[in-house]
Q: What sequence folds into this?
């Protein structure tokens, strides 16, 4: 079981990295041009990128049109809203 300290450190690290993730989301199709802040940010972005694109393929097939950009926009907005609610 994690200690409160470990949870706090992990949460703080995630909040610090949100702006760097948001930058990756804004340049979704050109994410290779983003200089990721850390290896952890790169790993998290890669996982989100792969998952959203996979879901986009499935949803696009079901909808009969490309909906991946809509999913990317939703993920990006979630990140922006989270950044807007963060108090340092």
A:
């Amino acid at each position: 079981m994690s200690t409160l300290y470990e949870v706090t450190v992990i949460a703080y690290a995630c909040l610090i990295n949100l702006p760097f993730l948001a930058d990756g989301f804004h340049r979704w199709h050109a994410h290779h041009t983003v200089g990721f802040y850390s290896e952890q940010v790169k790993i998290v972005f890669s996982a989100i990128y792969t998952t959203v694109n996979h879901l986009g393929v499935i949803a696009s097939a079901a909808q009969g049109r490309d909906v991946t950009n809509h999913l990317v926009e939703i993920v990006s907005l979630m990140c922006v809203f989270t950044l807007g609610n963060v108090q340092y």
